[in-house]
Write a structure and sequence with these properties.
The protein has about 180 residues and is of the alpha+beta class. Helices cover about 25% and strands about 35% of the residues.
Length: about 180
């Protein structure tokens, strides 16, 4: 199995444009996923611009996905070889990370998912600094990525967070260990 895994911060409008570009340039189907309660539905390229903040994931697939399922685990079992885009939350002055991830051994899927990863790397920069809020300990994460839109949000005072939200370590975009 081959894995693709890219953690990054991006502004919501950048995520939507990226999703549209992946669907068009890779020629794949797109599904939106909500949790609690679980719900999945097909999404057109034009409809991506209007997805609500309750959508937590966009899934890309080579064929029309199976949607009759009750949970994320059922969805993933029914639709193997998909590419998932976990959408970082943007609310109340903070932005959590997004994540592009796939695991597959299907050569056709891998070709398209590698193109999607390349498109993301072209739109982002590498390197962030994680800071423990309690101790101040810092670690540079060279492979973690961020977009220009996320950098602008950070400059305007928006706090960058890991997936667990604002209670996790602070994230500073770039690899400087200076705390401001």
């Amino acid at each position: 199995m081959t894995d693709i895994s890219i953690q990054f911060h991006a502004a919501p409008d950048e995520l939507r444009r990226y999703a549209q570009d992946v669907a068009v340039q890779c020629g794949v189907k797109m599904t939106s996923v909500r949790y609690f309660p679980f719900h999945s539905e097909s999404v057109t390229v034009d409809a991506v611009a209007a997805i609500s903040s309750s959508v937590r994931r966009l899934v890309f697939s080579l064929q029309q996905p199976g949607l009759v399922c009750r949970s994320v685990l059922e969805f993933e079992a029914l639709n193997p070889d998909c590419l998932r885009l976990e959408l970082g939350r943007f609310q109340a002055g903070w932005l959590s990370q997004s994540w592009l991830v796939a695991r597959s051994d299907d050569p056709d899927a891998l070709k398209k998912w590698r193109l999607a990863a390349k498109l993301l790397r072209e739109r982002t920069r590498a390197g962030v600094t994680a800071i423990n809020r309690g101790t101040g300990a810092q670690a540079v994460m060279k492979n973690f990525r961020y977009s220009e839109g996320a950098l602008e949000l950070e400059k305007s005072g928006v706090i960058m967070c890991p997936p667990q939200g604002k209670n996790g370590p602070a994230i500073r975009l770039g690899m400087s260990t200076e705390v401001t």
